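Quarterly update, task 2.4: uridine-5'-diphosphate-bound model.
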Amino acid sequence: MTTNELSESAGASRRALVTGGAGFLGSHLCERLLGNGYEVIAMDNLLTGSLGNIEHLAGNDRFHFIRQDVTEFIHVPGPLDLILHFASPASPVDYQELPIQTLKVGALGTHKTLGLAKEKGATFLLASTSEVYGDPLEHPQREEYWGNVNPVGPRGVYDEAKRFAEAMTMAYYRYHDVDTRIVRIFNTYGPRMRLNDGRALPAFISQALRGEPVTVFGDGLQTRSFCFVADLVTGILRLADSGIHTPVNIGNPAEISILEFARTVIRLTGSKSEIIHRDLPEDDPKVRQPDIGRARSLLDWEPQVELTDGLEVSIPYFEEQLNGRA
Ligand code: UDP
Protein backbone atom coordinates (compact mmCIF):
# COMPACT_ATOMS: atom_id res chain seq x y z
CA MET A 1 0.00 0.00 0.00
CA THR A 2 1.20 3.51 -0.76
CA THR A 3 0.36 6.50 1.41
CA ASN A 4 -1.92 7.52 -1.45
CA GLU A 5 -4.39 4.83 -0.52
CA LEU A 6 -5.48 5.82 2.97
CA SER A 7 -9.13 6.31 1.98
CA GLU A 8 -8.99 2.96 0.25
CA SER A 9 -8.21 1.02 3.41
CA ALA A 10 -7.93 2.92 6.68
CA GLY A 11 -11.52 4.08 6.95
CA ALA A 12 -12.33 2.19 10.14
CA SER A 13 -13.63 4.69 12.70
CA ARG A 14 -13.12 7.61 10.30
CA ARG A 15 -16.13 9.84 9.59
CA ALA A 16 -16.85 11.65 6.35
CA LEU A 17 -19.46 14.22 5.35
CA VAL A 18 -20.47 14.35 1.68
CA THR A 19 -22.48 17.42 0.71
CA GLY A 20 -24.60 16.73 -2.33
CA GLY A 21 -24.52 13.14 -1.10
CA ALA A 22 -27.78 12.27 -2.88
CA GLY A 23 -26.47 13.50 -6.22
CA PHE A 24 -24.79 11.61 -9.04
CA LEU A 25 -21.18 11.95 -7.89
CA GLY A 26 -22.00 12.37 -4.20
CA SER A 27 -23.87 9.06 -4.01
CA HIS A 28 -20.99 7.19 -5.66
CA LEU A 29 -18.55 8.77 -3.20
CA CYS A 30 -20.75 7.76 -0.23
CA GLU A 31 -20.89 4.20 -1.51
CA ARG A 32 -17.11 3.93 -2.01
CA LEU A 33 -16.32 5.48 1.38
CA LEU A 34 -18.71 3.08 3.13
CA GLY A 35 -17.04 0.21 1.29
CA ASN A 36 -13.70 1.47 2.60
CA GLY A 37 -14.94 1.36 6.20
CA TYR A 38 -15.92 4.99 6.74
CA GLU A 39 -18.95 6.19 8.64
CA VAL A 40 -20.63 8.47 6.11
CA ILE A 41 -23.05 11.37 6.49
CA ALA A 42 -24.72 12.43 3.25
CA MET A 43 -26.15 15.94 3.29
CA ASP A 44 -28.45 17.18 0.53
CA ASN A 45 -31.40 19.53 0.07
CA LEU A 46 -32.65 17.31 -2.79
CA LEU A 47 -32.85 20.25 -5.20
CA THR A 48 -31.22 18.22 -7.97
CA GLY A 49 -30.26 15.16 -5.92
CA SER A 50 -32.61 12.26 -5.26
CA LEU A 51 -33.20 9.82 -2.41
CA GLY A 52 -33.39 7.09 -5.03
CA ASN A 53 -29.61 7.46 -5.46
CA ILE A 54 -28.92 6.48 -1.85
CA GLU A 55 -31.86 4.28 -0.86
CA HIS A 56 -29.69 1.15 -1.28
CA LEU A 57 -27.37 2.53 1.43
CA ALA A 58 -30.13 3.16 3.97
CA GLY A 59 -29.80 -0.25 5.65
CA ASN A 60 -26.13 0.35 6.49
CA ASP A 61 -25.79 1.53 10.10
CA ARG A 62 -22.65 3.50 9.19
CA PHE A 63 -24.68 5.62 6.74
CA HIS A 64 -26.73 8.67 7.72
CA PHE A 65 -28.68 11.17 5.69
CA ILE A 66 -29.34 14.77 6.70
CA ARG A 67 -31.66 16.86 4.56
CA GLN A 68 -30.20 20.33 4.66
CA ASP A 69 -29.34 23.28 2.48
CA VAL A 70 -25.61 23.83 3.06
CA THR A 71 -25.94 27.56 2.52
CA GLU A 72 -27.46 27.66 6.04
CA PHE A 73 -25.44 27.10 9.24
CA ILE A 74 -24.39 23.45 9.39
CA HIS A 75 -24.38 21.49 12.61
CA VAL A 76 -22.97 17.96 12.57
CA PRO A 77 -22.65 16.24 15.96
CA GLY A 78 -19.40 14.36 16.65
CA PRO A 79 -16.03 14.34 14.92
CA LEU A 80 -15.38 14.58 11.18
CA ASP A 81 -12.17 13.55 9.41
CA LEU A 82 -13.14 14.38 5.84
CA ILE A 83 -15.59 16.78 4.17
CA LEU A 84 -16.26 16.38 0.46
CA HIS A 85 -18.16 19.44 -0.79
CA PHE A 86 -20.14 18.26 -3.81
CA ALA A 87 -23.42 20.11 -3.37
CA SER A 88 -24.35 22.16 -6.46
CA PRO A 89 -26.51 22.03 -9.53
CA ALA A 90 -23.95 20.89 -12.10
CA SER A 91 -25.47 20.44 -15.55
CA PRO A 92 -25.75 23.50 -17.80
CA VAL A 93 -29.56 23.16 -17.93
CA ASP A 94 -29.80 22.85 -14.13
CA TYR A 95 -27.58 25.76 -13.26
CA GLN A 96 -29.22 28.04 -15.78
CA GLU A 97 -32.63 27.15 -14.30
CA LEU A 98 -31.29 27.57 -10.75
CA PRO A 99 -28.83 30.46 -11.12
CA ILE A 100 -29.22 31.99 -7.65
CA GLN A 101 -29.07 28.64 -5.85
CA THR A 102 -25.96 27.78 -7.88
CA LEU A 103 -24.22 31.01 -6.89
CA LYS A 104 -25.28 30.58 -3.27
CA VAL A 105 -24.10 27.00 -2.86
CA GLY A 106 -20.75 27.77 -4.52
CA ALA A 107 -20.22 30.85 -2.37
CA LEU A 108 -22.17 30.60 0.91
CA GLY A 109 -22.20 26.79 0.90
CA THR A 110 -18.43 26.62 0.43
CA HIS A 111 -17.98 29.15 3.24
CA LYS A 112 -20.19 27.13 5.61
CA THR A 113 -18.54 23.80 4.82
CA LEU A 114 -15.05 25.30 5.17
CA GLY A 115 -16.09 26.73 8.53
CA LEU A 116 -17.23 23.25 9.55
CA ALA A 117 -13.89 21.75 8.41
CA LYS A 118 -12.02 24.34 10.49
CA GLU A 119 -14.18 23.61 13.53
CA LYS A 120 -13.73 19.83 13.22
CA GLY A 121 -10.10 19.81 12.07
CA ALA A 122 -11.27 17.86 9.00
CA THR A 123 -9.66 17.57 5.59
CA PHE A 124 -11.80 19.53 3.10
CA LEU A 125 -12.12 18.65 -0.57
CA LEU A 126 -13.84 21.02 -2.99
CA ALA A 127 -15.53 19.68 -6.10
CA SER A 128 -14.44 22.22 -8.66
CA THR A 129 -14.82 21.92 -12.39
CA SER A 130 -13.30 22.19 -15.83
CA GLU A 131 -15.73 25.10 -16.24
CA VAL A 132 -13.22 27.28 -14.38
CA TYR A 133 -11.33 27.21 -17.70
CA GLY A 134 -14.44 28.56 -19.50
CA ASP A 135 -14.19 28.41 -23.30
CA PRO A 136 -10.48 27.65 -23.13
CA LEU A 137 -7.83 29.28 -25.27
CA GLU A 138 -5.27 26.65 -24.18
CA HIS A 139 -5.67 23.03 -25.14
CA PRO A 140 -5.51 20.63 -23.38
CA GLN A 141 -6.16 22.42 -20.11
CA ARG A 142 -3.40 22.40 -17.49
CA GLU A 143 -4.04 23.47 -13.91
CA GLU A 144 -1.78 26.50 -14.45
CA TYR A 145 -4.18 27.92 -17.07
CA TRP A 146 -6.33 30.75 -15.63
CA GLY A 147 -9.20 30.28 -18.03
CA ASN A 148 -11.43 32.27 -20.35
CA VAL A 149 -14.74 32.77 -18.56
CA ASN A 150 -17.55 35.17 -19.43
CA PRO A 151 -18.74 36.32 -15.99
CA VAL A 152 -22.04 37.73 -17.28
CA GLY A 153 -22.91 34.92 -19.72
CA PRO A 154 -25.39 32.13 -18.95
CA ARG A 155 -22.64 29.85 -17.65
CA GLY A 156 -21.17 32.59 -15.45
CA VAL A 157 -23.35 31.60 -12.48
CA TYR A 158 -21.66 28.20 -12.26
CA ASP A 159 -18.20 29.10 -13.51
CA GLU A 160 -17.78 32.10 -11.23
CA ALA A 161 -19.34 30.31 -8.24
CA LYS A 162 -16.73 27.58 -8.59
CA ARG A 163 -13.91 30.07 -9.15
CA PHE A 164 -15.01 31.90 -5.99
CA ALA A 165 -15.18 28.54 -4.17
CA GLU A 166 -11.58 27.79 -5.21
CA ALA A 167 -10.43 31.21 -3.96
CA MET A 168 -12.29 30.69 -0.67
CA THR A 169 -10.77 27.22 -0.26
CA MET A 170 -7.23 28.56 -0.81
CA ALA A 171 -7.93 31.37 1.68
CA TYR A 172 -8.94 28.87 4.37
CA TYR A 173 -5.80 26.87 3.59
CA ARG A 174 -3.52 29.91 3.72
CA TYR A 175 -5.08 31.85 6.60
CA HIS A 176 -6.76 29.20 8.74
CA ASP A 177 -4.45 26.24 8.04
CA VAL A 178 -7.38 24.06 6.96
CA ASP A 179 -6.13 20.96 5.16
CA THR A 180 -7.78 21.56 1.78
CA ARG A 181 -7.93 19.94 -1.67
CA ILE A 182 -9.38 21.15 -4.95
CA VAL A 183 -10.37 18.72 -7.67
CA ARG A 184 -11.27 20.06 -11.11
CA ILE A 185 -13.72 17.55 -12.48
CA PHE A 186 -14.13 17.12 -16.23
CA ASN A 187 -17.20 15.58 -17.91
CA THR A 188 -18.13 12.42 -16.03
CA TYR A 189 -20.82 9.84 -16.73
CA GLY A 190 -22.32 6.67 -15.35
CA PRO A 191 -25.35 5.24 -13.58
CA ARG A 192 -27.40 7.72 -11.47
CA MET A 193 -27.05 10.67 -13.82
CA ARG A 194 -30.49 12.19 -14.10
CA LEU A 195 -32.24 11.31 -17.37
CA ASN A 196 -33.47 14.86 -17.81
CA ASP A 197 -30.48 16.86 -16.56
CA GLY A 198 -29.98 18.14 -20.10
CA ARG A 199 -26.43 16.89 -20.50
CA ALA A 200 -25.38 15.34 -23.76
CA LEU A 201 -24.91 11.83 -22.42
CA PRO A 202 -28.30 11.22 -20.74
CA ALA A 203 -30.03 13.16 -23.52
CA PHE A 204 -28.42 11.09 -26.29
CA ILE A 205 -28.93 7.75 -24.55
CA SER A 206 -32.59 8.38 -23.75
CA GLN A 207 -33.29 9.74 -27.24
CA ALA A 208 -31.56 6.76 -28.84
CA LEU A 209 -33.38 4.24 -26.62
CA ARG A 210 -36.74 5.85 -27.42
CA GLY A 211 -35.92 5.94 -31.13
CA GLU A 212 -36.25 9.72 -31.15
CA PRO A 213 -33.90 12.02 -33.08
CA VAL A 214 -30.60 12.62 -31.28
CA THR A 215 -30.14 16.37 -30.82
CA VAL A 216 -26.60 17.53 -31.54
CA PHE A 217 -26.10 21.20 -30.78
CA GLY A 218 -24.27 23.20 -33.46
CA ASP A 219 -22.18 21.26 -35.98
CA GLY A 220 -21.15 18.80 -33.24
CA LEU A 221 -17.46 19.44 -33.85
CA GLN A 222 -17.05 20.79 -30.31
CA THR A 223 -15.21 18.26 -28.17
CA ARG A 224 -15.49 16.81 -24.69
CA SER A 225 -13.61 14.06 -22.81
CA PHE A 226 -15.81 11.67 -20.83
CA CYS A 227 -14.65 9.92 -17.66
CA PHE A 228 -16.43 6.92 -16.14
CA VAL A 229 -17.62 7.63 -12.61
CA ALA A 230 -15.70 4.77 -10.94
CA ASP A 231 -12.40 6.14 -12.31
CA LEU A 232 -13.29 9.61 -11.11
CA VAL A 233 -14.10 8.43 -7.57
CA THR A 234 -10.75 6.62 -7.35
CA GLY A 235 -8.93 9.78 -8.42
CA ILE A 236 -10.82 11.96 -5.96
CA LEU A 237 -10.08 9.67 -3.00
CA ARG A 238 -6.41 9.52 -3.97
CA LEU A 239 -6.39 13.32 -3.96
CA ALA A 240 -8.15 13.39 -0.57
CA ASP A 241 -5.27 11.36 0.87
CA SER A 242 -2.50 13.19 -0.95
CA GLY A 243 -1.77 16.38 0.98
CA ILE A 244 -1.87 18.40 -2.28
CA HIS A 245 -3.48 21.81 -1.79
CA THR A 246 -3.34 23.19 -5.30
CA PRO A 247 -5.94 22.18 -7.92
CA VAL A 248 -5.69 18.82 -9.68
CA ASN A 249 -7.56 17.93 -12.87
CA ILE A 250 -9.35 14.59 -12.76
CA GLY A 251 -10.91 13.41 -16.00
CA ASN A 252 -10.36 11.21 -18.99
CA PRO A 253 -8.10 12.74 -21.65
CA ALA A 254 -9.70 10.69 -24.47
CA GLU A 255 -11.25 13.54 -26.47
CA ILE A 256 -14.20 13.01 -28.79
CA SER A 257 -16.39 15.34 -30.86
CA ILE A 258 -20.02 15.53 -29.79
CA LEU A 259 -21.09 14.32 -33.24
CA GLU A 260 -18.86 11.25 -32.96
CA PHE A 261 -20.14 10.72 -29.45
CA ALA A 262 -23.77 10.80 -30.69
CA ARG A 263 -22.88 8.20 -33.35
CA THR A 264 -21.22 6.00 -30.71
CA VAL A 265 -24.32 6.13 -28.48
CA ILE A 266 -26.60 5.26 -31.42
CA ARG A 267 -24.37 2.31 -32.34
CA LEU A 268 -24.10 0.93 -28.80
CA THR A 269 -27.82 1.22 -28.10
CA GLY A 270 -28.60 -0.49 -31.41
CA SER A 271 -30.89 2.43 -32.21
CA LYS A 272 -32.20 3.60 -35.56
CA SER A 273 -32.38 7.22 -34.42
CA GLU A 274 -31.24 9.91 -36.81
CA ILE A 275 -29.08 12.85 -35.75
CA ILE A 276 -30.60 16.32 -35.97
CA HIS A 277 -28.89 19.62 -35.28
CA ARG A 278 -30.07 22.36 -32.91
CA ASP A 279 -28.62 25.79 -32.18
CA LEU A 280 -25.41 25.80 -30.18
CA PRO A 281 -26.06 27.33 -26.74
CA GLU A 282 -24.32 30.63 -25.93
CA ASP A 283 -20.74 30.30 -24.62
CA ASP A 284 -20.66 26.54 -25.22
CA PRO A 285 -16.96 25.60 -24.90
CA LYS A 286 -15.49 24.55 -28.26
CA VAL A 287 -12.95 22.14 -26.83
CA ARG A 288 -12.34 20.43 -23.53
CA GLN A 289 -9.65 17.94 -22.61
CA PRO A 290 -7.86 17.59 -19.30
CA ASP A 291 -4.10 17.52 -19.06
CA ILE A 292 -3.77 14.90 -16.30
CA GLY A 293 0.00 15.10 -15.93
CA ARG A 294 -0.31 16.21 -12.31
CA ALA A 295 -2.76 13.44 -11.40
CA ARG A 296 -0.50 10.90 -13.10
CA SER A 297 2.70 12.00 -11.39
CA LEU A 298 1.38 13.09 -7.98
CA LEU A 299 -1.45 10.58 -7.45
CA ASP A 300 -0.30 7.76 -9.70
CA TRP A 301 -3.79 7.93 -11.18
CA GLU A 302 -5.16 7.61 -14.66
CA PRO A 303 -8.51 6.41 -15.94
CA GLN A 304 -8.89 2.70 -16.67
CA VAL A 305 -12.32 2.49 -18.30
CA GLU A 306 -12.69 2.99 -22.07
CA LEU A 307 -15.68 5.02 -23.23
CA THR A 308 -17.38 2.09 -24.94
CA ASP A 309 -16.98 -0.11 -21.83
CA GLY A 310 -18.36 2.62 -19.56
CA LEU A 311 -21.29 3.16 -21.91
CA GLU A 312 -22.05 -0.58 -21.93
CA VAL A 313 -22.43 -0.36 -18.15
CA SER A 314 -24.42 2.90 -18.22
CA ILE A 315 -26.94 2.19 -20.98
CA PRO A 316 -28.81 -0.54 -19.01
CA TYR A 317 -29.22 1.92 -16.12
CA PHE A 318 -30.87 4.48 -18.39
CA GLU A 319 -32.97 1.74 -19.95
CA GLU A 320 -34.28 0.78 -16.51
CA GLN A 321 -35.06 4.39 -15.68
CA LEU A 322 -36.97 4.82 -18.92
CA ASN A 323 -38.92 1.60 -18.42
CA GLY A 324 -39.69 2.57 -14.83
CA ARG A 325 -41.24 5.74 -16.12
CA ALA A 326 -43.19 4.20 -18.99
N1 UDP B 1 -25.12 18.87 -26.33
C1 UDP B 1 -25.75 18.44 -27.48
N2 UDP B 1 -27.04 17.95 -27.36
C2 UDP B 1 -27.70 17.85 -26.18
C3 UDP B 1 -27.03 18.27 -25.02
C4 UDP B 1 -25.75 18.78 -25.12
O1 UDP B 1 -25.19 18.48 -28.57
O2 UDP B 1 -28.87 17.40 -26.18
C5 UDP B 1 -23.75 19.38 -26.45
C6 UDP B 1 -23.49 20.70 -25.74
O3 UDP B 1 -23.82 21.81 -26.56
C7 UDP B 1 -22.00 20.60 -25.46
C8 UDP B 1 -21.78 19.12 -25.26
O4 UDP B 1 -22.89 18.45 -25.85
O5 UDP B 1 -21.26 21.04 -26.56
C9 UDP B 1 -21.68 18.69 -23.81
O6 UDP B 1 -22.77 19.27 -23.13
P1 UDP B 1 -23.18 18.89 -21.65
O7 UDP B 1 -24.48 19.58 -21.38
O8 UDP B 1 -23.12 17.43 -21.46
O9 UDP B 1 -22.08 19.54 -20.68
P2 UDP B 1 -20.90 20.61 -20.84
O10 UDP B 1 -19.71 19.81 -21.17
O11 UDP B 1 -21.23 21.60 -21.93
O12 UDP B 1 -20.83 21.25 -19.51
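Highlight for this quarter: The first strand starts at residue 15 and ends at 19.
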